Structure formats: C-alpha cells, structure tokens
Amino acid sequence: MKSEKSDLIEHKEKHPHLNIEKENQNSKLPKVVLVGNPNVGKSLFFNHLSGVYVDVSNFPGTTVSITKGIYKNFNIYDTPGIYGVSSFNDEEKVARDIILDADIILNVVNSIHLERDLFLTLQLIEMGKKVTVILNFFDEVQKREIKIKPEALSELLGVEVITTSAIKKIGFDKLDFAIEQAKVGKQNKELHEVLHNTLNRVGSQAEALMVLEGDIHIAEKHGVECGTADEREIIYIERRNRVNEIVSEVEYEDSSKGKFLNFIGRLSLNPYTGIPVLGVILVLLYFFIGDFVAQRVVDFTENTIGKGYVEYYIKAYIAEFTPSEIKVTLLDENEELIQEKTYTFTSSILEDAEKFSEFKSFSRQPNAEVDFYFPNGFVRLFFGEFGVISMTITYLIFLLLPLVMAFYFAMAMLEDSGYLPRLATMMDRVMTKIGLNGRAVIPIMLGFGCVTMATITTRLLGSEREKTIATAILQFVIPCSAQLAVIAVLMSSAGFTALMIYIAVIFAVLIGLSTTLNRFLPGQSTPLLIDLPMMRLPEMDNVFKKTFFRTYGFMKEATLWFFIGALFIGILEVTGILYLFQDILAPITTAWLKLPKETATAFVMGVVRRDFGAAGLFDLSLTSMQITVALITITIFVPCIASFMVMLNERGLKEGLIIWLGTWFFAFFVGGLVAQIII
Amino acid sequence: MIKQTLDKVRKGTYFTIANLPSGVLKVQLIRIGITEGTKVFCLERLPGGTIILQKNRQEIAIGYDLAKEISFIE
Predict the structure, then answer these.
(1) Top-level class of domain A26-253
(2) Where exactly are the structural domains of chain B?
(3) What pTM value is reported for the model?
(4) Is-contact A642 A561, C-beta < 8 A?
C-alpha cells in the first residue's frame, strides 16, 4: 500500500473547479449548511445560529422539511441526518441537493462515533466543498477516557477541526471561526484525477463525484452516464479504509474496548426486559395521551371552553338576527336530568327582554347543556349542529389540536431519546411476518395519531411492496387519535366483553389483511438495517420546536379539509339528502348490521372525517353489542377525505381506489358478520 | 475456519465478517462501518433472529433476512 501522504494532495485552487455554487441569483448571502449523521446534535447548532426566526418549509415533492435561518451575513440551512451523500431515500436526496448547492459546510461529527461519521466527512471533502469539522460530544469523549487528537485529525483531513459540547453550549463561540475558516480539504489523488475527467461535463467537482458514485438523477441532469455499482463499491471501500486509517491515527481508547454500558438502551433490546420496557412506555403513553389529554384536557377544552363559551356566545349572537329554538337541559353530577326548558324566539333572541334574561340566567348555570336550533337552513349550514363554522372551531381547535399536539410531543420525545430505532429492532421479527420490517412501526404508531400523516410517512419504507402493505393497514384498521377518543368513550359505556370482541375482530382483520397482502403482492420486502443511536435524555428545546412545527404543519393541512367536510355534511343535512341516504342504506344498516337506520348518518359522515363518523353514534341509543358492531364497521370503514387524497397521491389512482373501495366492502362485510353472530 | 451465515452467530462471541451481499445494502453497510474483514461482537440475538452487532462503541441492528446473507468466520 502506498503511504498516506503520496495518495493525498494539498488542494489549493490551482486549477478551475467551476463551482456552480458561486452564482446563486436568488439570494446573495452565502449558504452555510449543517451536515451530519443522524443524532449528532446538528439542530442544536442550527438553533443557536439561527435564533428565533426560522423558516420551515417542505422540500418540493417530499415531506422532508428543511429549516433555514439567517446568521450574520449567511443563510443557514439544516439538513436531515444522513450517513453519506447519495439518494437511497427522500431524506438523502433532499440533503444531497442542499449540499450540492452549499458554499460552506459545517460537518457535525459525533466524537464517540468517529469511525461511522468520518465516512460522510471524507465524502464531503472529496466533493471539493469548503468544510469545517465540528467534533461534538467532546466532553463525553473525555469522560470515557477516549483520547482524540483534533490537531492530528485537522492535519490529515486538511480542514479546520473544532471541538464542542452542544448540549452544554460549550464551543459555540468557535462557530464564527468555523464558518470563516472553512476550506477545501485534502483530496484523494487518484479519485481527484478521475473526477477532473468528468468535471468539464457536469460543472462541479461535487456533482462529478455524485455521477461517479452512480447517482442516476445527477447523471441524467447533465446527460452523462453514471458510474456502475461496482465502481461505487470500490470508491466506498477505499473511503472506508481511509476512515479506518485516520481513526487509528487520531483516536486511542484507554478503557476496555467498547464496554460502555448504555443501560436503558440495552434493557430495551434484551429479549427478557425489552417487552417490559415497551410495556412501561406504552402505559406512560396511555396515561399521557389516552387519559390525561384525550379525557381531561379535551373534556375541558371541548366542553367547557369550546361548547360552553365559544360556541354558546357565537350562537347566542347569531340568534339576535334570526329565529331560534333553544333547548336547555340541566343535569346533575351523575348526568341525570333535573330540568328541561325550551325557549322559542320567532325573530330574535332580543325580542322579549324578560324571556331573554331568564334564558340567560338559566342557561349559564353549571351543568346546563344548550342546544340551539335555527329554522333558517342557511344559518344552520354555518352555525347549526353540523355548522361549518361552529363545528369546525370546536372539533379542530378544542378537540383535535390538543390531541395532535400531545401526540407529536410524545413522538418527539421517543425520537430524540433514541428509543424509536430500538422499538423498530424489537418489533422487527413480528413485522417481517406481515411483510414489513421493524421500521414500519413508526408509520403504524403515527397512524394512531393521524392516519393522513402516517400515510405520508410510509415513504421511509424500503420498497413499494412495503409501502402498499403499510398503507393498507393504516387505512383499514388503524383508528386515528380523534376517532380513538370517541371509540374510548363509547367503549367505556359498552363494557369489557364488547371491548374484547372489538379488539379481537380488528386484530383478526389486521392479521388476515396483512398476511394476504404479504402472500400475494409480488417482490420482496427489505430487511432491517439500523445503526442504533445512543439513548439520552431528549433536549426539551428541540422537542418543543418539533412538536410546534409538526402540529402547525398538520393543522394547516387539515383545516381546509375539515371546512370542506363540514360544508359537505352541512349541505347534505340542510337539503335533506342526509336523511335520504339513511333510507337508501337502511336495508344494510337494519337487516345486515342490525343497527337503527340513523346509524347511516354516521357512516356518511365517516367518509369526510373518521371521528365525525364515530361521533355520530353518540346520540343514538344503542345496546352494547350494537355499539361493538357499529365501532368495528366505522373503524374499518373508509379513511377520511384528507387521508384518501394523500393516499391517491402516494400510491396512485388505481391502488388508492382499490384500497378505498376495499374498506367499504370489508367494513360492511365484517361488521355484518359480527352482527349476525353477537346481536 | 468455517464460513457460517450470521443468523447462526452465537450471542457474546467475537467474529470477522467474511462476505456481504452485493447491492445497495452492501453500500449502506460500508457507510456505517461494516466491511468484509471487520471484527465485530454479537451483542444480542432477539427472539425471531434479529441480530444486534457491536463494533467498538457502535451498535447495529440487522434483520434476520439480511443476517442470512452475511457470512462470518469466528
């Protein structure tokens, strides 16, 4: 083997490198891009540099969000965590495009995992980018008696190396230096010569490397042929060998080799303790989301604030201008009826001052429930029971918002603690039985929050086949948080047997559906391969930021569909078509499902939003077995409009429609079958 | 020195990776630090065959189906 030195060249700008990055017309500010492997603390640097004003947007055509901020005279970009620059998945493609366009790269490296992280570093340097390496978690290294020589690393790489501990905010003062002193590092001579052959045709050294490493997208862009898989492998192996050489020169470990005990991390992956750890986490999740937020918080926001104040005052105000019929029921603590009064105003609530003040004092008592009925159809469309404005506000802000927020908060905690990849590993074998791999637990878990969001996340799965299976599972059997809340309330009144029947049936459908798909779908699923991050306490700053941005993104998306859905149902109600549907569906509902014909309303509403569907069952007096059948049917029944649209977009028209129509058929088929047995 | 596939590795043993399956997975393995010739430790075998490898301070989970395609020598 040739000596390290002769293979490397000191890279001064002696020959032209045609950097495309110089002529960016849109923004004159140089682009500083933070790049690193997953879980290296990149976002802490980003948060520090960008301050409060951060612009989050979805990268065109993907769901990967890119965050951009401004620091002094630079545009700062954060990128998704990646192990190398290539295009194996959406996140890598997004990161690749931002990196190709970067002026300066701050490469954040986890000092504890030099061997893993320096692969990316070398690739960035070989791209000919100006780089500074940030050795993060440097205090951890010292704590563990690992000796790393930053100067030696800097010498070998030919770029500046700074050391930091971002969690303790140590080393942030060196970031200015890091940006200013970023430079093109030492190049692998042979590779560099090959790159220069391609360079003239593709415009930049960085893109030349991508082409050589077989990136079809970049090659097509320039109309050149890309490298073969074998060529890529050779480059990768050489780079890997050089990383190993560098690490052996700059790092010494005094403690017994690699015996650091990642205690909870290990417990969560042990066959005996892994399940209990998962159990504890699920119980905590249940108490937080299912009990605390879904019951207590939502009860307060939805009933006390939403219905009790906001809706009440909006409707009372509207009643000043239009005839109304207002029913007030007074309940005691056990929800038993004490008194009921109906006030009728023929033109306005203000027409009779005495009646109005009596209504006011009577309806403002604690435990009073107020139902406004507006005879005017148009008014009802917007402010009635399913009124576009009244219902959207209550559902969206006071029911869905707290739930979605709680869910994203919990997901961010799990994500940032490093538990999710371990959960994926634990669940791997079970998931392979149904044609998925452990990674699929992430979209499936997200589905319990929001099926629409989860359907988008199926993109992280490795093959089309897996995406189809996961999407079908989500659309068929996973109830979203809004629907779950309603199911939980109805189930608590139906009793334990009902709950067991419900769970057993839904579970049977899940197993039947997924094994059938696994059996008959062509192709192969991809196996699990995960680099497990260290377990650590999540940075609350980052967790809150994630929660906020994801909730915001979701609400932005969902609001429109909610309005459309509410308008649709409102029109059906006002025009009487809703009741027509009940008659059309009556034979199925009454004879086959053995439910009252009004249940059909719930189904029609379910087309719009799943929880509307389940909520529609509240007002019907059903036996506990009827509740079970209705909930089974509603759960399997069509996904909401928003997730239907997303599914069409993700899976294509044909597959999307097959799944959608499949849910119609199976919902009534399975629901009816159960009804014939238990009712 | 007998070559065996990784699904047969015993928990708590050190071994050397002999062959990796070609293709995208190989490239991904190389990136995170597993190449032919790398010495690793089997940290855990989960029920069902998912293997957890340890390489220095790094922990890597490998699914049963992938493990069957990787060979090692002890």
Answers:
(1) alpha beta
(2) 4-73
(3) 0.79
(4) yes
